[in-house]
TrEMBL record:
Protein name: C4-dicarboxylate ABC transporter
GO molecular function: carbohydrate binding
Keyword NAD carried by entry: no
Keywords per UniProt: Periplasm, Signal
Localization per Swiss-Prot or TrEMBL: Periplasm
Keyword Signal recorded: yes
Signal peptide: 1-21
Superkingdom per UniProt: Bacteria
One annotated Gene Ontology cellular component of this protein: outer membrane-bounded periplasmic space
InterPro entries the record matches: DctP_fam (IPR018389), TRAP_DctP (IPR004682), TRAP_DctP_sf (IPR038404)
Length: 324
C-alpha cells in the first residue's frame, strides 16, 4: 500500500498535492542540502516551468536525501516512483560504459573543457546510454574538480606525491590513479577523513574546494593543490515512465528549461568555489594554483590502458581530447 501511494503521487499528479493547483507535479530528488547549487538550480527550473506552463506543471524538490540516498533515488526514478533525480556519474559506471570514460583522471583539461564536451555531440551520445536504463537526460551539471590536499607539504610536482597516503573513494580507478602517481591509496568512509588526517593514519585526501571547506579538512590539512585530477559532470534526469505520460509540448518545455538550468547551476557552483577558496585561505590554508599537469597526465597511461579496453571507448577518449 505504501508503494502504491508513492506511485500515485509521482508522475502526473492531480491537483490537491503539496504543490496546490498544479495539474502535474514532478518530484525531484537530490542528496545535497537545501541551498546547494544543484538544489537551487532545480528550484529555478521549477519556477520557470510553472511560469511557462501557466501554472499547470510544478516541480517539488526534495534535498538532503529526503527521498533516499543516491543509489535508491536513481532506482526509484527508473521505476517512476520518483520523477526526477540529480545524480553523480559514479553509480552509472557499470550501466553506461561511456560514463566511466568521463570519470577517468585528467580526461578533461578544465571545467570549461568538460562543459563543451558534455553540452555537445558527445553529451548527446552519452544521454542515449541513459535512455536504455529508463532515464531521459535533461542536462549535465557540474560536480566540481577534485584536487589533492595534505598536512605535510605543498605539492607542486608529481614527485612530491611519492609514498604519501591519501584517502580516496571506494573506486578501483582511484586506487590505480594513486598508484600511477607514486602515492598510496587508502579507501575509507568520508566521515573518517578528518580524524585520520589529524592522527596521521593518512597524509591527506582529495576533493573539490567546497567539500574541503565545509568538511573542515582545511583545519588539519593546510596544503591544497589544484591539480584537478577529476572534473566530474553530473546528470539531471527524468524518469522515462513519467516522460511517456507527458504531451510532446510538455516534453519540449522540460527539455528547454532543463537545458536552461545548466548555466544557472554552473554559475552558482563557480561562486561557491570562489567563496570556499577565499575562506580557507583566510584561515591559513595554502592553495597551489600553478602546476605543470603534463607529468600527472602522462602517468595515467597504464590507468587508461586498463579501463579503456574497446575501440569504441578508445575513440570516445580521442574525441574528448580533441574537443576545443
Amino acid at each position: 500500500m505504501k508503494m502504491m501511494t508513492s506511485l500515485l503521487v509521482s508522475g502526473a499528479v492531480l491537483a490537491g498535492t503539496a504543490a496546490g493547483a498544479c495539474e502535474i507535479t514532478l518530484r525531484s530528488a537530490d542528496t545535497h542540502p537545501a541551498g546547494y547549487p544543484t538544489v537551487e538550480a532545480v528550484k529555478w527550473m521549477g519556477e520557470q516551468v510553472k511560469e511557462k506552463s501557466g501554472g499547470r506543471i510544478c516541480i517539488e524538490v526534495f534535498p538532503a536525501s529526503e527521498l533516499g540516498e543516491e543509489k535508491d533515488a536513481i532506482e526509484q526514478t527508473q521505476f517512476g516512483v520518483i520523477d526526477m533525480v540529480r545524480a553523480s556519474f559514479g553509480p552509472f559506471n557499470n550501466l553506461v560504459p561511456e560514463t566511466q570514460v568521463v570519470s577517468l583522471p585528467y580526461i578533461f583539461r578544465s571545467s570549461e573543457h568538460m562543459h563543451k564536451v558534455m553540452d555537445g555531440p558527445i553529451g548527446e551520445e552519452i544521454a542515449k546510454g541513459f535512455e536504455a536504463h529508463d532515464l531521459v537526460v535533461l542536462g549535465y551539471y557540474d560536480g566540481g574538480a577534485r584536487s589533492f590536499y595534505n598536512k605535510e607539504k605543498p605539492i607542486t610536482k608529481i614527485e612530491d606525491l611519492a609514498g604519501m597516503k591519501f584517502r580516496v573513494m571506494q573506486s578501483d580507478v582511484f586506487v590505480d590513479m594513486m598508484s600511477a602517481l607514486g602515492a598510496n591509496a587508502t579507501p575509507m568512509p568520508y566521515g573518517e577523513v578528518y580524524s585520520s588526517i589529524e592522527t596521521g593514519v593518512i597524509d591527506g585526501a582529495e576533493n573539490n574546494p567546497p567539500s574541503y571547506d565545509t568538511s573542515g579538512h582545511f583545519e588539519v590539512a593546510k596544503y591544497y593543490t589544484l591539480d584537478e585530477h577529476l572534473i566530474m559532470p553530473e546528470v539531471l534526469a527524468l524518469s522515462k515512465i513519467t516522460w511517456d505520460k507527458l504531451s510532446p509540448e510538455d516534453q519540449a518545455l522540460l527539455q528547454e528549461v532543463g537545458k536552461a538550468s545548466v548555466p544557472v547551476m554552473r554559475e552558482l557552483w563557480a561562486a561557491k568555489v570562489k567563496e570556499s577558496e577565499a575562506k580557507v585561505e583566510a584561515a591559513g590554508a595554502q592553495i597551489v594554483r600553478d602546476i605543470d599537469k603534463a607529468p600527472f597526465i602522462a602517468a595515467m597511461e597504464p590507468v587508461y590502458a586498463k579501463y579503456v579496453t574497446t575501440p569504441e571507448l578508445q575513440d570516445l577518449v580521442a574525441r574528448i581530447k580533441a574537443t576545443e
